[in-house]
């Protein structure tokens, strides 16, 4: 190996082949030869690559750890407020569930990105105003606008998180694609943490059961609730402290599920024709239809966000293009069903919200489909699809704000 390294020192490609063929032996041999290779730029680069250790950064800096521990404890405290203050749990969690985690994540990225005090004050003011607004909505007879506000508020907070993640500067643009990648990585890390937490919970309860102690209620009310509140914060910290931990898993999952989703959608649409179910008459079916639409659109977003202009081959681009076409068909059916119901029974807060969302998603899908067609034909790159997504995400944020804060006023708190 020593002779091979010396022989190919002027050829980076051959050195890479040697390294990939037997990494441990290559590292040992290269480190032994390094004293006589000092001064060679290629040798210096290989030495840093082979001997760089990430152990020191595995758990971030001391200030990172302090922030995450403090934020996790605060999230756990917020999650336990209904029990500590004897509050109505349904009222608290339905209206304030998003405030348990999102403000803390916003604060984390505001701190990491060193956003200006003025921007930080605006974010804090908007969050406080949202807390006051959602808790001030009439509670004697919950109506559709209250439900819509409670559903869309976390989505609006999510958009504030994206703004903060991207640096909190509108003039230079927000890194929405990077934010989508972060969400994909966070989803993977959260799933791993939940699996580990579930196994730990089962083992702990089982062990106490063996000695005759029934701790289920205490454990779920204290440990599980607090743990669930802390998971997004811990998961975010791990994805930022160790970006290589899951960043190769998310693209694999996206590429794996894209063809599965395409086949499933085609079969589902065919089965719908024979099932007798249709979104024109069945309100619950229309709701599920829109949930399916949002899920598939999210898969398209993450698939594009996890890729680079050169990371996806023609087959993968073709699958994404076909998936966008089928999703466009699903969106068209959902939109026509909403218009049909409005024409038949009039406008309501729910129908207005679904109509606006469907029109926005339809517009977005058309542009994405055109961009993907260009990428498949080779006339444009995947980066244009990403820029299209970046253009529409702030519009989604605006729509969630309208539904959350203005719909109750427009419809008289119905």
TrEMBL record:
Stated name of the protein: DUF4153 domain-containing protein
The organism's taxonomic lineage, starting at the top: Bacteria, Pseudomonadati, Bacteroidota, Cytophagia, Cytophagales
Keyword Transmembrane helix set for record: yes
Highest rank taxon of the organism: Bacteria
Transmembrane segments: 92-109, 121-138, 145-166, 186-211, 218-240, 252-273, 285-305, 317-340, 352-373, 393-413
Keyword terms: Membrane, Transmembrane, Transmembrane helix
């Amino acid at each position: 190996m020593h002779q091979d390294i010396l022989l190919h020192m002027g050829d980076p490609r051959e050195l890479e082949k040697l390294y990939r063929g037997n990494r441990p032996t290559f590292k040992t041999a290269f480190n032994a030869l390094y004293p006589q290779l000092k001064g060679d730029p290629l040798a210096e680069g290989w030495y840093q690559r082979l001997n760089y250790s990430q152990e020191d950064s595995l758990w971030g800096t001391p200030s990172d750890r302090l922030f995450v521990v403090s934020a996790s404890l605060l999230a756990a405290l917020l999650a336990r407020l209904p029990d500590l203050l004897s509050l109505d749990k349904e009222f608290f969690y339905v209206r304030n569930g998003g405030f348990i985690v999102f403000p803390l994540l916003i604060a984390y990225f505001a701190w990491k990105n060193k956003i200006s005090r003025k921007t930080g004050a605006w974010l804090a003011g908007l969050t406080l105003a949202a807390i006051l607004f959602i808790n001030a909505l009439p509670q004697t007879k919950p109506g559709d606008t209250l439900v819509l506000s409670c559903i869309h508020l976390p989505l609006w907070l999510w958009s504030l998180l994206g703004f903060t993640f991207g640096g909190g500067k509108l003039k230079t643009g927000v890194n929405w694609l990077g934010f989508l990648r972060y969400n994909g990585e966070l989803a993977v890390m959260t799933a791993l943490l939940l699996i580990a937490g579930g196994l730990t919970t089962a083992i702990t309860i089982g062990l106490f059961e063996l000695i005759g102690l029934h701790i289920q209620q205490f454990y779920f009310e204290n440990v599980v609730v607090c743990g669930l509140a802390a998971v997004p914060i811990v998961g975010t910290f791990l994805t930022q402290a160790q970006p290589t931990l899951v960043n190769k898993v998310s693209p694999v999952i996206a590429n794996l599920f894209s063809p599965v989703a395409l086949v499933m959608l085609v079969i589902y649409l065919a089965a719908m024709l024979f099932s007798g179910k249709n979104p024109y008459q069945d309100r619950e079916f229309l709701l599920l239809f829109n949930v399916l639409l949002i899920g598939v659109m999210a898969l398209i977003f993450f698939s594009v966000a996890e890729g680079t202009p050169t990371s996806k081959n023609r087959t993968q681009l073709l699958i994404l293009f076909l998936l966008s076409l089928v999703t466009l068909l699903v969106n068209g059916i959902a939109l026509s069903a909403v218009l049909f119901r409005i024409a038949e029974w009039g406008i309501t807060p729910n129908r207005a919200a679904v109509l606006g969302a469907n029109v926005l998603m339809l517009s977005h899908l058309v542009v994405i489909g055109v961009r993907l067609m260009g990428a498949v034909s080779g006339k444009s790159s995947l980066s244009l699809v990403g820029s299209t997504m970046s253009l529409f995400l702030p519009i989604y944020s605006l729509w969630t704000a309208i539904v959350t804060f203005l719909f109750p006023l427009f419809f008289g708190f119905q």
